[in-house]
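This follows on from our talk about sequence and fold. Go ahead and set the record down below:
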Amino acid sequence: MKKARILSFMLLFFIALVGIVYYVYVTRPSDTSKIHISSNPWIGFTPFIYAQEKGWLEKTSFKFIWLVDLDQNSHLFERGFTQGFTATQYELLHFNQREKSKPVFLIDRSYGADAIVSNRSIEELKSSKEVIDIYLEQGTLNDDFLDAFIKEKKLSSLKFHKINASQKNILSLKENKKPIIIISYQPYLSALLKKGYQPIASTRTMESFFVIDALFVDEKTIKGREKEFIQLKKLFSVAVERLRTNPHEYYETIKGYLEGQSYEEFMATTTQIEWLHQKNDPKIIDHLRTKQIKTDGLIP
């Protein structure tokens, strides 16, 4: 019996040791010369995917880590696994260490690619006596989107039950007879619409919700490496131009990241954003400053 306990202890020790080795040597970025940036397959970030798939990033200092859940950006950044991330101004405001980072360049403004969908119309929701389940990624801009939606549509008297869920989990939801609301974005939004959910609000229709996407980076990482970020922005611009001049080739290059979106669906999403990388719009810069977001590091 004693020998068995010793063997069990040794086995547990070995498993723990393997876990520690994995954490140190696999999970944590090993190449400290690289600038690790987390991102997701949002339409505005696909030029980074295109640049990566074309091999353009191989001779640069940048390594992208592709995620699904929005809140993973903050987890990776705050634990030192990444030095930058693509996100909205609202997501940045949810970061515990938001004062450490600032935007290097603006990417896009959402103009319909973020949306709230439901299995009920607005009128049916307003007259509902049931508790309405709301599926969203909590701790992200989805919280702000929901708050603005409830206020703008005057729904505060309704009973809501928030459910924290990733977009992957949301896509696996089965048909529900209860009234539900889902907050989503492209490319996941296309799949929800195919399932029959109807849009009841979006960044195109909302008057009080303004979403800007940018590349945010740790200030210490930017210092002395400005030329590298200028190079990354140039590659981003070339990728956007490829999207405009040869959209089918662009789609074929990145489609593996698009959660099954067809070419037609993908092209529809390109009309749901406004690109911002070519110039720094003074109105947008003023908006970011009202959110106490530093703008002095923006590349012209």
